[in-house]
Write a structure and sequence with these properties.
The protein is mostly helical. The protein has five helices and no strands. Helix 1 runs antiparallel to helix 4, helix 2 packs antiparallel against helix 3 and helix 3 packs antiparallel against helix 4. The radius of gyration is 16 Å and the shape is globular. About 30% of the residues are buried.
Length: about 150
């Protein structure tokens, strides 16, 4: 795949991700049961832990490493390679299960598919830029500790 097509596919993944997030946020009521709020809050906590562990030069929505980025294995990144994607899915599950609508179910499905594809795409880019990435990440879950 050419660099131009690579960049276009990465952009398409980001558009898909934010479309899914919009569907989750706007796709139904916010009158959620307590357990859905706990799930949503856990997603926000995971996001905050990821944002503070990652470092400013590594933060990007694009699935391509920024110029001058470094690999992070501190904070929550010791346990999960992609905690920001996990946070999207936790928040999304909270609203989709807590106040379900067909739009939210479709948005959650879209988010899951897009983020799984984005993980593979991003990890290939990280490995190309940092050949030590696979070895450094050995034993660190991609998305859910103890599962995958």
């Amino acid at each position: 795949m050419s660099e131009e097509r690579n960049a276009g596919f990465g952009t398409l993944l980001v558009i898909g991700q934010f479309t899914a997030i919009a569907g989750l946020l706007l796709g139904g009521s916010w009158l959620l049961p307590w357990w859905a709020w706990v799930t949503f809050a856990l997603g926000l906590l995971v996001f905050l832990l990821a944002a503070t562990s990652l470092g400013v030069n590594n933060f990007t929505a694009m699935p391509v490493p920024r110029e001058g980025n470094t690999l992070s294995k501190k904070g929550i990144y010791r346990f999960v390679r992609h905690p920001m994607y996990l946070s999207v899915l936790l928040c999304g599950a909270g609203v989709a299960l807590g106040a379900p609508t067909i739009w939210r179910w479709m948005a959650l499905g879209l988010a899951l598919i897009v983020l799984l594809v984005k993980i593979g795409y991003e990890e290939r880019r990280l490995t190309a830029k940092h050949p030590e990435y696979p070895e450094l990440m050995r034993g660190v879950a991609r998305l859910v500790p103890g599962v995958w």
